[in-house]
Specification:
Helices cover about 55% and strands about 20% of the residues. The chain is an alpha+beta fold.
Length: about 120
Amino acid sequence: MISAVNSTISALQAYKTQMDVASNNVANINTENFKKSRVNLKEGKNGDVQATVRKDNTPGHRYQELEGDQIIEKETSNVDLAEEFPQMMLTQHAYEANMKVLRAHDQLLGTTLDILA
C-alpha cells in the first residue's frame, strides 16, 4: 500500500515538472532563439514515475530584419501553442487523477482507523 502512495507522489512530482516545462515554453514564446523543452515520463524500477527534461533543438521560423544599414538573420522560438496547450490540459487531468488516488487512500486509512478505534 505504501508503494502505491510513493508511486502516486512520484507521478505528481513528474506532472508538476511537466507543467513547469510547458509553462516556461509558453512564457518564452516570443523570445528569439528560445528552444522549447520536453519532458519524457517513464516507469522506474520501483514503480515510480521518472521525469527527464530535454531540449528540442528544432529550428524556429527564420526571418530577416533591417538593423541600421545591415540585414540581420534572426530566428523565432520553436514553441507552438497548438502543441503546448493540449499537453498542459492532459497534464492537468493526469495530476487531478493522481490527486483523487491520494484522497481515496486517505479516506481508506481514515475509515480503517475509525473501525479499529
